[in-house]
Structure formats: structure tokens, C-alpha cells
Amino acid sequence: MKWPRKKNNHQPPLSLEQQRSEKLAELGARLLALRQAQGLSLEQVVVLTRIPRRLLQAIEEGNLKELPEPIYIQGLIRQFSEALGLNGVEFSGTFPITSTPVNSQGIGNISPLSQLRPIHLYFLYILLIFCSVNGLSQLLNNAVLQASNSQNQPYQKQKSGVKPEIAQRKEPVEVEPISDRLSKVHQGQAVQIGVTLKASSWIRVVVDGKTEFEGILPEGTHRTWKAQQQLTVKTDNAGGVLMSVNQEKAKEMGEPGKEEEIRIAAKPKF
């Protein structure tokens, strides 16, 4: 006589992923029915919750693959249910987010980085980039500040102590009257003038009745002219033009910004 075999009613427990999938399908169906009962469209719920439409649709359809991490899924379910008037904390609390127990023998072989999901790594990368940029910016700011201080130190030293040579240059140059210059006649030789520009100025030079130059000379220019009978020099900025006669000490033609004309003649030897 054969005894009937006993049916094994013991079924293996569901994995955590299966539990989440089944619970999401249950909660999503309830939210879908409640939304339709209230006459709301998904677009209206998007406005209320500011959750993208594709995520709301994935919750209603129980599509776990289209949703982010379980902890975020629970938050989305809470917002969705609160928009429909439910107690969001209580409604979303039934969605499992805890991990399955880990065998104590294999704990030492599991790396913490291996448990990170892609979204966790994404935030970790952002944090590392932010820290690197912040540190580099701080180093650059310190380098610029040190360079600025080193450049300002020589300037402060130069400003605090004025050299005697510079002070002497700022002393006004004595201007010889035109009448005295005209009285300087060099017997039996040609007359020669040298012109040095302290500042950019317009100048005209007439040699023996012929205009040899007329125009603007830049600062620092030095020119010489020679005449057998007479030289005439005219400028619109007498203080910016130094003139010497026959290689004598150069003097300003007059006051800065004023027009001046000087004639110098050479008398023949009797």
C-alpha cells in the first residue's frame, strides 16, 4: 500500500527586492484608484507634488526599475499620498527600505564601496569635486595676495623716501628773458640750437627764412638746427621745450602751456 506523499507547503521567503516590488504594486494601485476617484490627472498631481510625471506613473504601475533608491521611493510615495489627502508618513511607511540580514561570516569580505548604488557614487563624486575646487581656489587666492603684498612693498619704500635727484628735478628752471637771448650774438660764426622736449609739444623751426620743421614732437625728442644768419623757434608749450644755443646749458623757452617765439641771429665778423 502506497502512502500519499505529503505536499510541501513550505515556500522560501521572498527576497527584499520581491517584497518591494509587490508592496509598490499594492500602494501604486491604491494611489491610482484614489487619484481617479478624485478626478485628478497625472499632470495635476505633478503640479501639486513637483514630481516628474514618469516617476508618478512608475509608482502607479509598480515599475520598480524606473524609480531611484528605495529611500527616495518612500519619499515619493509619501508626497504622492499627501497630495491625495492621505497620511503620507503612515501610508509610505509600509514600503520596505531596510536591507536583508547579512551573514556574519561574510562581513569581513564585503567592501563598503561595493554596497553603494550609482546615485550614491554620483553624490560622492560631486562632493570630491567641490572640495577639490574649493581648495584650489583658496590656494590661488593666497598666492595672489602674497604677490600683491610683495609688489606693494617696494612701492611703499619708494614712496616713503624721495631721492634727492628726483627732488632736484622738480625745482623750477629759471627762464631767461627773450631780450637777453636776443642780445647774445656770436660774432663771425653760424648759430646752432638744440631742442629737447620735456613734454609732447608743437614746434616750428625757421632756418635763414626757410621753415625746416613744423609739427608735434613727442616727449624725450632731441633735435638740432644750424643757421648762418638767423634761427626762429616757436612753440605752443614753452615750459615743455628746453633750448640750448651753441651747446650752452639748455633752458626752458618760457612758462608751461604758453606760446613763445624766439629769434636768434648770428652777426658777421667786421
Written account of the structure:
The protein is built from 8 helices and 8 strands; from the N terminus they run H-H-H-H-H-H-H-H-E-E-E-E-E-E-E-E. It has 270 residues and is α+β, with helices and mostly antiparallel strands. Among the domains are: 16-92, Orthogonal Bundle (434 Repressor (Amino-terminal Domain)), CATH 1.10.260.40; 178-265, Immunoglobulin-like (Sandwich), CATH 2.60.40. The strands form 2 sheets. A 4-stranded antiparallel β-sheet has the order 4-1-6-7, with no helix packed on it. The chain has a 4-stranded antiparallel β-sheet with strand order 3-2-5-8. Strand 2 and strand 3 (210-217) form a beta hairpin. Helix 1 packs across helix 3 and helix 1 packs parallel to helix 4 (70-83). It starts with 15 loop residues before the first helix and ends in a 5-residue tail after the last strand. The model is unreliable at 100-115, 162-168 and 181-187 (pLDDT under 50).
